[in-house]
Amino acid sequence: MFKASNLPETVPVFPLPGALLLPRARLPLHLFEPRYLQMFEDTLKTSHRLIGMVQPHDGPGGKGQLHSIGCAGRISQFSETEDGRYMITLSGISRYRILEEVSGFTPYRRANVSWTGFERDLGPTEKDDQFDREKFMDLLARFFAAQELQTDWESLKDAEDELLINSLSMLCPFEPEEKQALLEAPSLSTRRETLVTLIEFALRGGSNEELVQ
Prior knowledge:
This protein is α+β, with helices and mostly antiparallel strands and about 210 residues long. Helix content is about 30%, strand content about 30%. The chain has helices at about 35-45, 135-145, 155-160, 160-170, 175-185, 190-205; strands spanning about 10-15, 25-30, 50-55, 55-60, 60-65, 70-80, 85-100, 110-115. The strands form 2 sheets. Strands 1-3-6-7-8 form a 5-stranded mixed beta barrel. Helix 2 packs across helix 6, helix 4 (about 160-170) crosses helix 6 (about 190-205) and helix 5 (about 175-185) runs antiparallel to helix 6.
């Protein structure tokens, strides 16, 4: 398990729209661009093996800007394809706040980061004492039907609160800014509340009309 003292001051950052990583969750990635293959190889040489996932966005300064908060994951699995690409899995460790980007000679982006304020991420699995699972599963079933999505409902019913909420936050087809809101939720209960709001909004067809019954 990572301790705060083991977290580096600088991490390589991987801007990928819509790709959400959360602490204690796993994110599979397919690396094929030369700069990210180089990032992967360089990261494997470090003791921490951390890559910082982050959402890019277009702002006043132009395209390719980064949200200030991302989540770092440790390379926990990888395999190489015959044509030199990599399939990797990141295990979410902790969120971070970007302080500044680092100029250097790497083809990929790097940033100095702060881990302060995200100590909860390094702790045990979170619980959601206010979670009404039956009501939530009913809402989720309507959302999946509306989106024509398939899932293993038995596995969802048996999953622990954190695994269920975080997995759905990562996998549901929300917009990048909505994914960012889920990432920045300070606790599991607020992430669940945000997730419910997004699902209800989607069921309304993205309008403020009353929820479709």
